[in-house]
Amino acid sequence: MRSSTSLQVTRLTDAIGAEISGIDLTEPLDAATVDDITTALHENLVLFFRDQPITDRQHRDFGAHFGTLQHFPYAPAVSDDLPEVHRLDNDGGKDREPGKSADNWHSDATYMEFPPLGSILRAVQLPSVGGDTLWANMYAAYESLSSRMQRLLDGMTALHDAAKISEGSREAVHKRFPPREHPVVRTHPTTGRKLLFVNRLYTTRLVGLSVRENEQLLALLTDHVQQPEFQVRFHWEPNSIAFWDNRCTQHYAVPDYTEPRLMRRVVIEGTKPE
């Protein structure tokens, strides 16, 4: 990988994750550094930056180097001036319903016609204990399946539905976000590699299978991501940042804390899965 003058990439596991150092995100980035970060993302799938005391506006500007930013539908903006920067604030789980949100393995917003390319998440306030996030490599999840299973899944589609976890009425959710069919095995538009593209949070069924077949096979695929050899676990610190490729990863926010956890995020628009 071609490196900028000071950027350093330290891999965290063989499958996924790297820590980026030698860079100050409070300063403008040159084109070479942006290219190096992009290359590191494609190689490592999720990147971690520590000790980056950036503002919301700098967060927005950093994300904009990598694509058009979304006004994400299910997260409030930090301000009217910065609609691209979203609050992901948790009071410590007092009202959390287990298994209905980010404490499921998932890719973000796969119910959309154009699911996000990626997200950049920043820690603002953290609990004294807990609150880690895990990411998993969906290339590895696909490649570890048997060749017979891969042949079965290639060409199959799955239905993704925002109403699966929404608190609103199904009709209202579907009016805004109708269910979408996406390939079960997606090809990454940049790397050309195949990956598994179903998740427990939004995927409701595999198209063309019977109810019993769907119950068995979809459960097998969504459980498959939980293998530790696909994963990296990140312990947040104040001013830590994670930047992940939403197309080829899933993530899981561990709900093991009882104090506030305040985060900020930008989401980069993606393309239709193929």
CATH topology of the largest domain: Double-stranded beta-helix
Rg over CA atoms, rounded to whole Å, is: 18 Å
Write out the CATH superfamily name of the largest domain.
Clavaminate synthase-like
What is the average of the pLDDT values?
94
Low-confidence stretches: none
User: What is the CATH class name of the largest domain?
Assistant: Alpha Beta
Instruction: Give the beta-strand count.
Output: 16
What does the main sheet amount to?
A: 8 strands, mixed
CATH architecture of the largest domain: 4-Layer Sandwich
**Secondary-structure element string:** EEHEHEEEEHHEHEEEEHEEEE
Give the overall form.
globular
Distance between the termini: 27 Å
Strand content: 25-35%
Instruction: Supply the number of structural domains.
Output: 2
Strand order of the largest sheet: 1-2-3-14-6-16-5-4
Indicate the structural class.
Answer: alpha+beta
Number of H/I helices:
6
Description:
This protein has 274 residues and is α+β, with helices and mostly antiparallel strands. The protein has 2 domains: 8-137 and 229-268, Double-stranded beta-helix (4-Layer Sandwich); 146-224, no CATH class. It is built from 6 helices and 16 strands. It has an 8-stranded mixed β-sheet. Strand 4 and strand 5 form a beta hairpin. The longest helix has 14 residues, at 31-44. The protein is globular, with a radius of gyration of 18 Å.
